[in-house]
Amino acid sequence: MSEAARRRLVILGGGEHARVVVEAIRAEPEAWDILGFVDPEAREETARALRMNRLGDDEWATQFIAREDVWLALGVGSVGPPTAREAIVTRFDAKGARWATIIHPRAWISPTASVEPGGQVLVGAVVNARAALGAHTLVNSGAIVEHDVYVEPLVHIAPGAVIGGGTFIGKGAYLGLGCRVRDHIRVGRGAVVGMGAVVVASVADAETVVGVPARPVEK
Ligand SMILES: CC(C)(COP(=O)(O)OP(=O)(O)OC[C@H]1O[C@@H](n2cnc3c(N)ncnc32)[C@H](O)[C@@H]1OP(=O)(O)O)[C@@H](O)C(=O)NCCC(=O)NCCS
To answer: What is the pLDDT of residue 5?
Structure first.
């Protein structure tokens, strides 16, 4: 792709997840021209480590995207419900945001799988045949989303998690580090699966489960 064809991109957030996303983008430098990151704080460590400018805060960014031809990448992660990520998406959607879909060149996406705008599939992840990832879904390093899994928006599948074929993952669910989720079940909207859990049966909306086999956490 020529220099002129590289699309201009702003990273929203300057914390830990932003640094991972930037490295995924830079692994394929011909696709995007990163202008810098946006964060309410100075984030000097990120600016130094990534040799990248902090452009301003969210208010600056909303004005910038209204007048410039630019794409956005969400650099804010979440452990548990994606409250902060959803608030940012809602705010920028209201301003007509265009969300970049970020696929690390060393992830595998089946040609029959789909990823909605804003999806991020990070290094070593696998998204298998006919899996469908909703907008702003994050499939983190080394996670496996098996065939025919349907994932609603704003789900985070943490590093090393494995989702069996044909499973449904509801909006905003969080699947922790290294968990295993049985095939053909339902993980409810806003559910949280603890790290290392083995989920053998469907999980209700907003329920948190942990352990092997996974059981609801007592409130
Ligand atoms: C399930 C989880 C969200 C609960 O977090 P929390 O509400 O802060 O809970 P706590 O750490 O206070 O633990 C509460 C109890 O649950 C237990 N527990 C917590 N996580 C557990 C897990 N994954 N498996 C089994 N037990 C767990 C704790 O031992 C503790 O038990 P106790 O009351 O008998 O001492 C969290 O432990 C977890 O798994 N987070 C995922 C982390 C992750 O995926 N990070 C990836 C970042 S990219």
So the answer is: 82
- Rounded to whole angstroms, the Cα distance separating 37 from 47 reads 8
Beta strands in 26-182 (DSSP E): 32-38, 54-56, 71-74, 102-103, 108-109, 114-115, 120-121, 126-127, 132-133, 138-139, 144-145, 150-151, 156-157, 162-163, 168-169, 174-175, 180-181
Mean pLDDT of successive 10-residue segments in the chain (219 residues)?
78 96 95 96 93 95 92 96 96 95 98 98 98 98 98 98 98 98 98 98 98 93
Distance 194 CA to ligand 1 centre (A): 6
The pLDDT value recorded for residue 4 is: 62
Sheet of 174-175: strand order equals 102-103, 120-121, 138-139, 156-157, 174-175, 192-193, 208-210, 215-216
- Mapping DSSP to helix (H, G, I), strand (E, B) and coil, where does residue 18 land? helix
Q: How far apart are CA 133 and CA 155, in angstroms?
A: 9
Instruction: Write the CA distances from 208 to 15, 185, 216, integer angstroms.
Output: 26, 16, 6
The phi and psi torsions of 17 (rounded to 5 degrees) equal -65, -35
Residue 215 CA to ligand 1 center (angstroms) comes to: 12
Going by alpha carbons, the residue nearest to atom 17 of ligand 1 is 210
Global pTM value:
0.96
pLDDT for residue 197: 98
3-state DSSP helix/strand/coil % of the chain, to nearest 5? 20, 30, 55
